[in-house]
Design a protein that fits this description.
Oligomer: single chain
Shape: flat
Helix content: under 10%
Order of helices and strands: EEEHEEEEEEEEEEEEEEEEEEEHHEEEE
Strand content: 35-45%
Length: 433
């Protein structure tokens, strides 16, 4: 009897995306199959035996396009065999360094053209896909190989030079990028853009860099625009460059730009890499003629609406605004539940961080000024607050504020006595505008 050894092939993408597995277990372990059934056992291996295990899932389709079985991330990681029906099957595999970012379709609803969707508040991670067709013989275990392909680009290095001293915010925007991909590797018609905020380097004058985690994205749809966005206290300027080549999947992307008069230079080159195909490096010197947007700023106002969110506070000198989540949540019973919920909420545009608990001053502000909940109201405004107790922080320690009264509001500070499902969870977020 032959074992099924379903290897992730060492081609353009990486090898061993799943947990490491042995290849010489005793065949007698898998004898005694039920009649009219076949055995699938997925084995994974890596060229580098010290590689960190990754996650994957496999969908098994019959010739009619119906999904008859799945191989779960747990089964793949533990090399656990599954019993499935014999015959011709198509295997579609999806792998990532963090599959929890994705809301993958269930066995009952999946097709080969299902869209790979993100969970609320999550962003793209490293993503590889692969498809193969094989025939499973009754009572046997068949060997099959899946060739995987990395579907994303990875931006890991951005630097901008010669940025004027009065600039308080610098961003790079790249697009259009494909927004969604299907299990079969085909893109939808939706497009998106990448927006990345840079930070000023204190030790180098006029230099701004990206210091966050690697940014993953689907490749560009055609040749993308690369926009340098500069913000002063009361003005926003954008400088646009149209790339002469697309950003291809399975490539690192590095951006090195200048804001100055000078000769335009552009370079795209592929560098050898053991896992990725290479690196696309874009070097460009923006000139005055590249200025495509120059407009005054309309500052948000505390207590008013900003893109459908309630404005808690505004810092004009930094051009940041604190926004209140549209609707409250209750049912929080522990810190891990609160942290998990805060990461699952969709962030508004221009967000520079994650959702967080409001400070006591911020909490007091919206409890004092936001519209009180009215059970008879029909508009269900985003800004409503209702009497009750709210989570907040004071000197980085948890506490609560209690709002009581209807026509005349009373706000009481309370020491934190533990999590409760009756306490309102109204996080805020810092947004750059």
């Amino acid at each position: 009897m032959n074992k099924l050894k379903l290897y992730y092939a060492a081609i353009t993408a990486f090898v061993g995306i799943l947990g490491l597995g042995g290849c010489n277990q005793d065949d007698t372990t898998y004898q005694g199959l039920e009649k009219n059934m076949s055995r699938l056992k997925v084995m994974t291996r890596s060229i580098d035996e010290t590689a960190k295990p990754k996650e994957g899932k496999i969908y098994i389709f019959n010739p009619k396009g119906l999904c008859t079985d799945t191989i779960s991330p747990e089964n793949l990681k533990n090399n656990t065999p599954i019993t499935t029906k014999p015959g011709e099957v198509k295997l579609i595999a999806i792998g990532s360094n963090d599959l929890s970012a994705y809301n993958l379709p269930s066995q009952s609803t999946v097709t080969d053209s299902s869209i790979i969707k993100l969970n609320n508040g999550r962003v793209l991670t490293d993503l590889i896909l692969g498809t193969t067709t094989t025939t499973l013989e009754e009572g046997e275990t068949t060997q099959s190989d899946i060739t995987m392909s990395r579907e994303v680009i990875c931006i890991k290095d951005i630097i901008a030079h010669s940025i004027p001293d009065d600039i308080i915010g610098t961003e790079m925007m790249i697009g259009p990028m494909y927004k969604h991909i299907r299990l079969n590797g085909k893109y939808t018609t939706d497009i998106d853009s990448i927006r990345i905020a840079l930070k000023k380097k204190t030790q180098e004058e006029g230099v701004w860099t990206y210091t966050g985690d690697s940014v993953f994205s689907l490749p560009s749809k055609g040749n993308p625009s690369v926009i340098l966005r500069l913000k002063t206290v009361d003005n926003t300027k954008e400088y646009t460059y149209l790339s002469n080549a697309p950003l291809k999947k399975n490539h690192f992307v590095k951006l090195n730009v200048d804001l100055r008069e000078g000769i335009k230079t552009f370079l795209v080159g592929s560098l050898s890499d053991p896992s990725w195909e290479g690196t696309d490096s874009i070097e460009y010197q923006y000139q005055k003629a590249d200025n495509t947007k120059d407009e005054p700023v309309m500052h948000p106002v505390a207590g008013h609406d900003y893109y459908g969110y309630y404005v808690v506070s505004v810092d004009k000198s930094k051009r940041t605004v604190v926004l209140l989540r549209r609707k409250h949540s209750a049912g929080i019973t522990n810190e891990s539940m609160m942290n998990a919920l805060s990461k699952s909420i969709n962030k508004p545009a221009w967000a520079v961080g994650e959702w967080r608990l409001p400070t006591v001053e911020e909490c007091r502000y919206f409890l004092t000024n936001a519209t009180l909940y009215d059970a008879s109201a029909t508009d269900n405004t985003n800004f409503m607050v209702e009497p009750g107790t709210y989570y907040c922080t004071k000197d980085n320690e948890l506490m609560t504020l209690t709002l009581s009264g209807s026509t005349k509001r009373t706000i009481t500070e309370n020491a934190f006595t533990g999590y409760s499902p009756t306490i309102f969870f109204r996080p805020v977020i810092d947004v750059s505008y």
